[in-house]
Amino acid sequence: MSEINSVGIVSAQTAHFSAPLTLKSGSVLPQYHLIYETYGTLNADKSNAVLICHALSGNHHVAGKYSEQDKYPGWWDNLIGPDRPLDTNKFFVIGVNNLGGCHGSSGPSSINPLTDRPYSATFPVVTVEDWVASQARLLDYLGIEQLAAVIGGSLGGMQALQWTIAFPERVRHSLVIASAPNLTAQNMAFNEVARQAIITDPEFHDGDYYNHGVVPRRGLRIARMLGHITYLSDDAMGAKFGRKLKDTIKYSFDVEFEMESYLRYQGDKFAGEFDANTYLRMTRALDYFDPALEFGGNLSAALAHVKAKFLVVSFTSDWRFSPARSREIVKALLDNELSVRYAEVTAAHGHDAFLMPDSHYHNILRAYLQKVKV
Amino acid sequence: MNLPDQAPASHKNVINTNIRSDFALITNWVSSNAKVLDLGCGDGGLLTHLHHVHTIRGYGIEKDDVNWLAAMQNGVNVIQMDLEDGLSGFEDHSFDTVILSQTLQAMHNTERIVQEMLRVGREAIVTFPNFGYWRNRLQIIAGQMPVSKTLPYEWYNTPNVHLCTIHDFDDFCKNHNITVIERKVITDTNDVRFMPNWFGNLAMYRLRSAK
């Protein structure tokens, strides 16, 4: 990644909220905090704010580095910076770690101020609706009445959609990328396998592993390996690894193929830095999201009060959030005569394509965002 | 549409003399504030024109990446999809007018797209190059596939797979229970009333379902 047009060295901030937040489940968070980062400058009218919503394993560190020594920048750095598609010369960009996360916002691994111990399993199950409600409070805190745009991929795209439903007056543009109006049974099934891997790990201790001084690494590792398979297309895995061997065949169950080496590396890396309780909650938020549910499955009715303009993008090889699912969103927007542009990007990378700097994809985002008035 | 490499990105750009008269006549057939769907909208030129004249509520469908991006940059609500798959995702009679401008002849599922247009639109506008135009006939009599301003391709690189004459399309409408509300035939910018199937190079139909 070139350092040219980077947002440079960044730092995170934390906002504390003492007003209770009633969650969709009925549980109440008496207080909480959200960690966030911003890039660019909020203009005098406060009309140039763009919120980035993260997906399953993402966080508030979207762009830039914390120090020159950092090996990697934020997770969507290729999108954000001066003269990049989401141009920080024009926009004030906000990245936030969602409630229930494990990167600094209130979540299972953070300290419950009422007990001075980690929330662990007592941290409530949170939903996309809860996240959007808490993000709206962050905007209040920052003095921002209306977002120029909200952007998200995958689970982040669900938040971008929910924003327009929950706060039609507070968002002008919504960019919903590689997402879906709800998960299919197959998609939820992957989540269930991932959760079972974690929950049945002997070191899970009903979610209270912090107090046992252990981490359910094996479960988290397998959950991540499974996830990685579904984020790539068959073609992309074939191109990246094919049947390549690490060495000669040893007739063993050690790493024999390059693909196994990759999955184990990704699994180990993730298990070392992510919180299992957070993973459970993120997958549940995915499962539960279904704005059409209370409208008898009619998504068009669910979007009846939406006002935002939309860019919807899908990727041809994405089978976990297939183009057909994005087209359902487009149909509901069309049914409501809303402004919508829909691109189906030819890409080989599967679901992961939304994070890749494909030039056509980035040209689409750049062209759309250039038209957004601030 | 999927065009061969030799062809320009949009075959609509090739026929500039016709496109103006094409636009003007289509404009006459679209009412103010109408909700309009343009199939194969290219860079969105027609929708932009209609919006200026009639403040329509327009949507375009375009498959080609380059055209799609150009349409979006021109401020058009453009949906990327393949017309060969029909118009699933569009409700019955959800548009006042659905337009297929000089794309019919390049469609594989010709029958289906016209039926889909009449399902989604209260009215449909279809325009196509008339294969019965005398210059085309002359070239065939001379023993060659026609190449002209409205048919600017060689037989080996043409995207056109379903060329037809005005008579053919009249029959098609009759056989498919389609009412022709109005028909206009032009050559370049001139109205053709005398023997249109001989002397017109562009046919324009305003249609609705007879059912």
Could you characterize the architecture of this molecule?
The complex is a heterodimer of chains A (374) and B (211). Chain A is of the alpha/beta class. Chain A has ten helices and 14 strands. Chain A has helices spanning 128-142, 155-166, 185-199, 217-231, 234-240, 258-273, 276-288, 299-302, 323-335, 359-371; strands at 13-17, 21-22, 28-29, 32-39, 49-53, 80-81, 86-87, 92-96, 111-112, 117-118, 147-153, 171-177, 309-315, 340-345. In chain A, the strands form four sheets. Chain A has an eight-stranded mixed sheet, sandwiched between helices. In chain A, strands 2-3 form a two-stranded antiparallel ribbon. In chain A, helix 2 (155-166) links the parallel strand 11 (147-153) and strand 12. In chain A, helix 1 (128-142) packs across helix 2 (155-166). By secondary structure, chain B is of the alpha/beta class. Chain B contains seven helices and eight strands, in the order αβαβαββαβααββαβ. In chain B, strands 3-2-1-4-5-8-6-7 form an eight-stranded mixed sheet, sandwiched between helices. In chain B, helix 3 links the parallel strand 2 and strand 3 (77-79). The longest helix of chain B has 13 residues, at 16-28.
Estimate percent helicity of chain B: 25-40%
Binned, the helix content of chain A reads: 25-40%
Order of helices and strands of chain B: HEHEHEEHEHHEEHE
Count of β-strands of chain B = 8
Shape of chain A: globular
Low-confidence stretches of chain B: 1-18
Cα-based radius of gyration of chain A, to the nearest Å: 20 Å
Major β-sheet annotation of chain A = 8 strands, mixed
Biggest chain contact = A-B, 19 and 18 residues
What is the terminal-to-terminal distance of chain B? 30 Å
Q: Indicate the multimeric state.
A: heterodimer
- Count of helical regions of chain A: 10
Low-confidence stretches of chain A: none
- What is the structural class of chain A? alpha/beta
Number-wise, the strands of chain A total: 14
